[in-house]
């Protein structure tokens, strides 16, 4: 599921939202209240149950061939998403919805490269929420490799030390870092 021109998306497990009101999330690192959404490039970051920890990496112009082969893998596309085995059932069974929102109400958020879109005023969806469907199928259609790991931290450490672009979401929900890592 991707936004159409003039739209951004908000993903939720709640199909009853009729109005998005700016708020400060309990885990926010900034004091401002926002309505959060994503553009087409960042949609795959949210094709997961909300609380699912995930480590994601993708190639960029500065990615070395060695890092691409070591982390993404030969013949495995340009992007990899990793979750822990303990989240597999939730990943396979979650009912996720996409809300289409008017892009003109949002501005890019994040430095140096924006990773989200934010609005400071209430926003109403452009229509009813749409079921996202099968998360594995969304990943397959987008050419994104899915990886199941017992623990995310060794992968995360390799990704963040590499020349790939990366994002980690809800990592506080991952299993504890193994001793020595």
Q: Explain this structure to me?
A:
- Helices cover 17% and strands 25% of the residues.
- The protein has a 4-stranded mixed beta sheet with strand order 9-4-3-10. Strands 1-5-8 form a 3-stranded antiparallel beta sheet, with no helix packed on it.
- By secondary structure, the chain is α+β, with helices and mostly antiparallel strands.
- The chain has one domain.
- β6 and β7 form a beta hairpin.
- It has 4 helices and 10 strands; from the N terminus they run βββαβαββββαβαβ.
- The model has no long low-confidence stretch (mean pLDDT 94).
Describe the largest sheet: 4 strands, mixed
How is the quaternary structure best described? Answer: single chain
Q: What is the N-to-C order of secondary-structure elements (H for helix, E for strand)?
A: EEEHEHEEEEHEHE
Number of domains in the coordinates? 1
General shape: globular
On the 0 to 100 scale, the average pLDDT is 94
- By DSSP (H or I, 4+ residues per run), the number of helices equals 4
Largest beta sheet: strand ordering: 9-4-3-10
User: C-alpha Rg, in Å?
Assistant: 17 Å
Any low-confidence stretches, pLDDT <50, length ≥5? none
- The overall strand count is 10
Helices and strands: which structural class? alpha+beta
Our measurement of the CA-to-CA distance between the termini, rounded to an integer number of angstroms, reads 36 Å
Our estimate of the beta-strand percent is 25-35%
Helical residue percent? 10-25%
């Amino acid at each position: 599921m991707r936004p159409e021109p003039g739209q951004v998306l908000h993903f939720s497990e709640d199909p009853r939202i009729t109005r998005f009101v700016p708020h400060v999330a309990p885990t926010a690192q900034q004091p401002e209240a926002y309505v959060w959404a994503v553009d087409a490039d960042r949609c795959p970051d949210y094709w997961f149950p909300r609380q699912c920890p995930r480590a994601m990496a993708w190639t960029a112009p500065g990615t070395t061939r060695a890092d691409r082969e070591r982390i993404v893998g030969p013949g495995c596309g340009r992007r990899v998403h990793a979750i822990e085995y303990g989240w597999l059932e939730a990943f396979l069974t979650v009912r996720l919805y996409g809300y289409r929102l008017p892009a003109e109400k949002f501005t890019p958020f994040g430095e140096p490269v924006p990773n989200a879109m934010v609005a400071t005023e209430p926003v109403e969806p452009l229509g009813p929420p749409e079921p996202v469907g099968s998360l594995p199928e969304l990943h397959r259609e987008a050419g994104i490799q899915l990886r199941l790991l017992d623990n995310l931290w060794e992968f995360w450490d390799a990704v963040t030390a590499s020349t790939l672009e990366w994002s980690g979401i809800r990592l506080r929900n991952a299993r504890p870092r193994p001793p020595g890592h």
